[in-house]
Specification:
By secondary structure, the protein is of the alpha+beta class. The protein has one helix and eleven strands. It has one helix at 2-27; strands at 33-44, 57-58, 62-67, 74-76, 82-86, 90-95, 101-105, 109-117, 120-122, 134-137, 142-154.
Amino acid sequence: MSKNIFIIFFAILTIIACSSAKTQNTAVKTVQGIDGYVFKISGNQMPMPGMAAPKPAGIATTVFVYEMTNLREVVRINNSPSYSAIHKKLITTIQSDSTGHFSVQLPVGTYSLFTKTGSLYYANLFDSENNIAPVKVEEGKITSTVIKLDAGATY
């Protein structure tokens, strides 16, 4: 009899411990960083009467998150949005899924996002101070962004 009571007591204690652990894990969840999509755009993108613009396709790729990077801090290939080297600190990398979606938790700050095409880094957005693909992360917020890989597109 006492053996059965011990087993029941141990089972109840285990269930209580597991349920409190689940509660603690969900309470610690951080919601601060970047959430976005990577789209591959190629071919003729010129608007044509009576024709809808082609829908961009999401792509599974690696997204490189660097400290805010200026054009002076990269080795640029001619005047293109391709770079052979980035002279800033790499913060992290994220893999986008087959729809192009990615999400990463980051501390407050401003970052530059790159992808790679072959051996070259790629980013085609700049701000007014020539910072490359800047994305700002604010306290307790998720910043949404879209990365367009459009090296093969005609506009």
